[in-house]
Amino acid sequence: MKKFEQTFPENFLWGGAIAACQSEGAFDLDGKGLTVADIAVKHDKTVPRSVRKLITAERLEKVLQETDDRKFPKRHGIDFYHRFKEDIAWCAEMGFKVFRFSIAWGRIFPNGDDAKANMKGLAFYDQVIAEVIKHGMEPLITINHFDMPMNLVTQYGGWKNRQLIDFYVTYAKTLFERYGEKVNYWIAFNEINGARFNVFYSTGIVKDDEATYLQDCYQAAHHQFVASALAKKALSKVSKEAMLGCMVAKFTTYPATCKPEDALEAQKNEQMDNYYFTDTVIRGEYPPYAARFWHENGIELQIFEEDEAVLKRYPADFLAFSYYMSSISAADKENFEETDGNLKNTLKNPHLKASEWGWQIDPIGLRYTLNDLYNRYSIPLFIVENGIGAEDVLEDGKIDDDYRIDYLSAHIKQIEEAIKDGVQLIGYTTWSAIDIVSSGTSEMAKRYGFIYVDQDDLGHGTLKRIPKKSFHWYKAVIAANGLGLD
């Protein structure tokens, strides 16, 4: 019988997260190739998500011809490439037990299909991993975090092309062989359900032919499923202890009312936004509701017999997810207000407050989500992103971000409740450890970190690092292992 846990276990991994494409900069140094992240232009919160995320061949060609690097903030990030020792030291001062970061695919294989790895790229991550371990932290590495090499888009058409499986596996094997004995936790793809809500940056698929777009998206997802399983196979040959996780952006959805039609709509949205991806990667086979979805949407996936075998034999070891908000579903949407703040267009829950960017705040939903996922899969969970983006103001050399403390405190309390409910949780890495360029808008104004970075949306500033009020609060939380939040 499972022992009742009253609070966070002693070995709980507290930490924070960043991504290479939002932090490193140095986009053209030491042999790094251009990636999809490097062509993301800056937007603010007034620009609809449908505009920011839609990439057509025409728009892609125009962006690739642009010569002004300052229009692309992710090319410069916060200069983690040259300042990683300082940034990792700040995280260690907070008491991090784990530091989540990603490796830039284009820094290891500049074109994605290169015959040999870029040794300067590997040497850089040798230093990063060594620095993390030196400070007593576990490295949690995402293999591909929305930054696939542009060459794989322009020459191969992105993940709809089956050849990308081999390119990715070669890349993953290179990382495992180099770092496998030092890294215990890996994530194959950041938010693998991005094939549904962040298509271009997740899969490299451009939207031109409406008739084949959905087909391409789900074929791309299938290839990523197979690549993830093959990566797990490769990791198991290098290390018996290391774990490979499946990660999704968790879209927690409630029925808008107690009408059966709304409950059914919520269930369908949960299935297609979340479980289609996690069921396949964790259970090792497509869920039964997938067939109807394919039939009704004219999707005919090319699934080889060996694909089914490898999916079944090499499922993910743990389920990682990002959690920022929840939403509601209704069969009849006319009586509900919409928002595109919840990572995608959804209905707004009138019972919840929202952030400056329209992301609805639901701490209890995190407990609900943890219970839901653990009861469904019975494998360890890992919250690898949770936080609030805000326009932090520097006054007299300080940032009093009480709103961030309130947000994180409320969520951590619900995590503790989920642990009492019996959920097995490996750790919690907030988004983000330090201010970085926003993933969705490529702006600096939307800040998530415990450490302020003196840089504006245009890249101007000293890049000085300044701890916020939340820095000291989180340090105390970690020291108390989550206790004493009130």
TrEMBL record:
The keyword Hydrolase applies. The active site is at 385 (nucleophile). Its EC number is 3.2.1.-. This is Glycoside hydrolase family 1 protein. Gene3D superfamilies: Glycosidases. The lineage of its organism: Bacteria, Bacillati, Bacillota, Bacilli, Lactobacillales. The keyword Hydrolase applies. It comes from Lactococcus muris. GO terms for molecular function: hydrolase activity, acting on glycosyl bonds. It comes from the Bacteria.
